[in-house]
Structures are given as structure tokens and as C-alpha cells.
Specification:
Length: about 160
């Protein structure tokens, strides 16, 4: 069992050993200055052995196509770097029907760097999704870009094992 650490959640913190897996889902709900609601969803996933982030993304699109009513891709998959560590990000935009209304989303998938505690198999990714019903406003897009550009993986201690 690994040593006990403080585990922080928005409501407080507690002491526990490092979990084998933290598959937390964060749904952050915002309103822009015009009171339009939008979400930034943060979730985690794992790459299969030898799978690239691009392949993961393509597989997600196939799953969405099968399972989401009215799903359609909005443009092409793009790849670029972001944040203080210049992490590679794969980004897609799409939309689908949710209770009869078109829900827009942009997903940014980032492969996390190796870390002996948080990513010992070097296969973890984090996905940031901007979504809302209707078109995004400029304010919402800029907020999402600020979030992405400020992302820095937890502590770089242990990067070299």
C-alpha cells in the first residue's frame, strides 16, 4: 500500500493512500455575461496498448456515431500543443441531438506524461469538453482556451521514475 496523502476535492480533503485509479468526472457549469449556460467537462480515460491519442479519438467518433442521435462531426481532427509544458492535444468538434436540441461540443484530448504514481503505464489521457445547447459565444470559447492553456499535469516529481 502506498503512503497516505491528502486527497483534495472541492468540498474539502481527506487522508488516504494513492488510489489505484481515479476516474473522477468533473462537470463545471458556467454562465457567460449574457447568462448563457455552458459546461466544461473533465474526464479521464486510458489508451489501449500501442494506441495513439488520434486512434482513441477516431474510436470515440465511431462510438458517438453509433450511440448519439443526430451525431455529426464539425470539421476535422486537429493536433497542436498547449499549456506550460507544451503538451500535445488532439481536438475535435461535433454536435448531436439532446432531447431534440442540438448540443455543440469541442473535445480536447491530452496524453498525460509518464508519472510513477499517476501514470505508471504511460497510457492515461485527460479530456476537456466544452459543450452547450446552441452555438458557442466568443466568451465561452475564450474561457475554454484559457482553461486548456493553463492546464499543467500534477507534480512533475516522479517523471523519470
Amino acid at each position: 500500500m502506498s503512503k497516505n496523502n491528502e486527497y483534495i476535492i472541492p468540498e474539502g480533503s481527506f487522508i488516504t493512500s494513492t488510489p489505484n485509479l481515479d476516474n473522477t468526472l468533473n462537470i463545471l457549469i458556467y454562465r457567460d455575461p449574457a447568462l448563457n449556460e455552458y459546461n466544461i467537462v473533465v474526464h479521464r480515460a486510458f489508451l489501449d496498448e500501442d494506441e495513439t491519442v488520434e486512434e482513441f479519438c477516431e474510436n470515440e467518433v465511431k462510438t458517438f456515431t453509433r450511440n448519439l442521435a443526430g451525431f455529426k462531426e464539425e470539421g476535422k481532427m486537429i493536433t497542436h500543443e498547449l499549456g506550460p509544458m507544451k503538451l500535445k492535444v488532439v481536438q475535435i468538434a461535433n454536435s448531436y441531438l439532446d432531447e431534440g436540441e442540438r448540443l455543440q461540443q469541442v473535445q480536447s484530448m491530452i496524453k498525460l506524461p509518464y508519472h510513477r504514481d499517476n501514470n505508471p503505464n504511460d497510457n492515461r489521457i485527460i479530456i476537456f469538453t466544452l459543450n452547450r445547447k446552441g452555438e458557442f459565444t466568443e466568451y465561452q470559447r475564450k474561457h475554454y482556451v484559457r482553461v486548456l492553456n493553463s492546464f499543467a499535469p500534477n507534480s512533475t516529481s516522479g517523471l523519470l521514475g
